[in-house]
Design goal:
With 340 residues, the chain is mainly alpha-helical. The chain contains twelve helices and no strands. It is elongated, with a radius of gyration of 26 Å. It starts with a helix and ends with a helix.
Length: 340
Amino acid sequence: DRYNGDIVANAGKQQEVRKSWNALCEGNVATGLTPAMQWVAGVYSWADMLALHAANRSLQLWNIVFALLALGGLALGMMRIFDRGWIMLLGYYAALVLALLVAQSEVWAKRRTRHEDYRALAEALRVQFFWLAAGLPDLASEKYLRKQAGEMIWIRDALSECSLFSESLANTDEVAKDAVARLDLARVWVNGQAKYFHDTSLKYQKLRAIYNIFAFLLAGIGFASPIFGVLAQSISGQTRLWIGPVCHAIAGVALVWASLAWNYIELRGFAREARQYARMYDLFHAADELLEDFETESSKESFTFAEDTIRELGIEALSENGDWLVMHRERKLSPGLAAG
């Protein structure tokens, strides 16, 4: 019901839906789709668009929460510098209250849950679409979220609607009687997923490195500032008594921001996701090379092997997305974790 309600609420985002449709085939124009493939592509496009929308909005709000917490730490550190320290104290509490309100609005809207649900549905439908393209009669609902029952069972129920197109599934060869054409369409998915996993793994490695460098620099500033303050105070004597308090405030703020950066890295799971995507890239890249060899050979046996390869890749993709879902369910951002 929530999914259908979100579709109604976002009925005006047809351009974004079309973009998701085009991205399904990596920008290629897919023609001659069966009713089953058209239905799967249509539902995928909405699920993908809603997942992207929820993820972007949720991440923006959580970045605001972390920024407000960092500003709160800055205000707390500045209390010792200004004569009217109560102004900084008010700023500190204002930042905390605003961070709590923003975080609570995100929790109430359940955007993270929406993102996780709709991404899981979209990825399963992606596999289903290319299984159909390859002429495979398998149903993703039979191989997805076996360990993640309970609240996620609705996704398996939604996927099982593909069985309504059992006649189309049985006659998938009508899409293109030439096995090469069917294999080419399926390879679009394999090649596109290999590129996606490779680029995403590099992106998460880069993000982890950037945040780590930022945190280490701040931690170094926090470590060195008090020593610098003592040395500067001893050199300047009584003429600049403000140097010590300022250095102490800088040290406190730097350490707070460093801890926030390290906490953010841990909560986002950059390292774990980078490793997971790198593993999936190796798998899909190797499979793409195998499919190219099978296509070159062009024998009946080679196309049978190609179909088996695509089936196993789909099962691996469903399993990987199930693991992704579990990780994100367990490692949700929250005001308490952010403040930690």
